[in-house]
């Protein structure tokens, strides 16, 4: 009997690890697909003869779709077996990536925008499902850690995209990079689908939220505080990811590939920073979230100021690594904090709202940065913009409430 129980426990742990690992891979390739235009921005602008703002919008088109369909999709996913939608969502993203290939090769900017928008629907579904599966695969006391670990695949994907896209583009041409990552998403999603089918899921609320409970989420002041903080956090994150390669090329005498390599360090450190932020909040700070949020925004301000005076490439690399750490400390906590402010039955809706807020910031901020560059004619304005986002974020955190694990919904 003891041998049987030991074997069963080992099997449960094994499938938990496999599920988290394969979900991590799904988000790895999703993130790589999403960030690809940013790492080859100058090439895309030259080939398609488009402005900085339009090029930046290409990076963020999938987030536009996520912002529009996010809440309805989240409500739908709360009512179905989420495992079943994984392959379909991956196919949607693959079709969009193939569309990117054709559009880029034909020089059709409108078709490229449309295909990126289409792929965004699959991207959002995969994101929400991965978070949902991570939180229900482990006991409640470990859910924040599991969520932080699985979403760390996303910045790893940004790093992979920033590093590999310029090099792959030299071989297959920049339009050919998109379907390669799209195919990788499909393959990893199929493996994830089978892994989820073998893992033991912990009990989650059996009933869907009522209309009154759903409405309560939207009138909850604390949820709107999280929305503001999430928008600002992801705005900072995407300004660095989408515009730093171009900024570095303009300010320093280095190649596009070298720039992509340096900037890849920024999201890459999120593999460690996101789980560490969750661990520090849970263990060191006794499940308080606001100190991590505050440290993240204040740290971003300090790094941005330092970048103004950076003239050496070695110092630049150090600043990018530090920026990646401080900005991403809070990312995993945003979704946990959103859930803590609402009834457990509405937790999925809260995560969807926070996700939509993040996509909104991810889309809007790079476009604003592009417009500012076009208006001023200087890439230094990007640092001013990033510093302003840090100040706004710090003020928002100062005004928000602490969620905490025992916080009752307001």
UniProtKB/TrEMBL annotation:
Keyword Iron-sulfur tagged: no
One Pfam entry name: MFS_1
Keyword Zinc-finger (UniProt): no
UniProt keyword list: Cell membrane, Membrane, Transmembrane, Transmembrane helix
Ranges for domain Major facilitator superfamily (MFS) profile: 16-405
Localization: Cell membrane
Membrane topology per record: Multi-pass membrane protein
Alphabetical list of Gene3D superfamilies matching this protein: MFS general substrate transporter like domains
Domain of life: Archaea
Transmembrane segments: 12-35, 55-77, 84-103, 109-134, 146-165, 177-196, 223-240, 260-280, 292-309, 315-335, 347-369, 375-398
Coiled-coil stretches noted in the UniProt entry, renumbered to this chain: none
Record GO cellular component, one term: plasma membrane
Principal localisation: membrane
Gene Ontology molecular function, alphabetical: transmembrane transporter activity
Entries under PANTHER family matching the protein: CHLORAMPHENICOL EFFLUX PUMP RV0191, PURINE EFFLUX PUMP PBUE
Record-given protein name: Major facilitator superfamily transport protein
UniProt source species: Haloquadratum walsbyi (strain DSM 16790 / HBSQ001)
């Amino acid at each position: 009997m003891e041998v049987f129980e030991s074997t069963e426990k080992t099997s449960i742990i094994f499938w938990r690890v496999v599920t988290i690992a394969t979900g991590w891979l799904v988000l790895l390739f999703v993130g790589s697909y999403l960030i690809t235009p940013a790492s080859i921005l100058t090439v895309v602008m030259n080939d398609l003869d488009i402005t900085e703002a339009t090029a930046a919008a290409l990076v963020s088109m999938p987030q536009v779709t996520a912002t529009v369909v996010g809440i309805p999709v989240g409500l739908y996913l709360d009512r179905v077996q989420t495992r079943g939608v994984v392959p379909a969502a991956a196919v949607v993203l693959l079709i969009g990536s193939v569309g990117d290939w054709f559009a880029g090769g034909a020089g059709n900017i409108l078709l490229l925008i449309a295909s990126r928008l289409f792929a965004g629907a699959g991207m959002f579904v995969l994101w929400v499902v991965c978070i949902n599966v991570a939180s229900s695969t482990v006991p409640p006391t470990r859910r924040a850690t599991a969520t932080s670990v699985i979403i760390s695949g996303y910045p790893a994907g940004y790093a992979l995209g920033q590093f590999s896209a310029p090099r792959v583009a030299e071989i297959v041409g920049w339009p050919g990079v998109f379907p390669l990552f799209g195919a990788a998403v499909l393959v990893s999603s199929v493996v994830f689908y089978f892994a989820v089918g073998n893992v033991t899921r912990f009990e989650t609320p059996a009933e869907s939220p009522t209309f009154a409970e759903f409405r309560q989420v939207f009138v909850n002041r604390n949820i709107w505080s999280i929305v503001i903080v999430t928008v600002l956090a992801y705005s900072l994150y995407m300004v660095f990811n989408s515009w730093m390669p171009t900024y570095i090329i303009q300010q320093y005498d280095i190649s596009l590939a070298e720039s992509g390599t340096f900037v890849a360090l920024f999201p890459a450190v999120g593999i460690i920073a996101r789980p560490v932020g969750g661990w520090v909040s849970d263990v060191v700070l006794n499940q308080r979230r606001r100190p991590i949020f505050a440290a993240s925004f204040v740290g971003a301000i300090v790094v941005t100021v330092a970048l103004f005076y950076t003239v050496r490439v070695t110092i630049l690399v150090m600043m990018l690594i530090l920026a990646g750490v401080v900005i991403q400390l809070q990312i995993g906590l945003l979704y946990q904090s959103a859930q803590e402010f609402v009834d457990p039955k509405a937790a999925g809706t809260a995560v969807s709202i926070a996700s939509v807020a993040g996509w909104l910031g991810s889309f809007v901020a790079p476009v604003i940065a592009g417009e500012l560059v076009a208006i001023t004619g200087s890439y230094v304005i990007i640092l001013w913009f990033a510093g302003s986002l840090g100040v706004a974020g710090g003020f928002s955190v100062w005004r928000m409430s602490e969620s905490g694990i025992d916080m009752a919904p307001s």
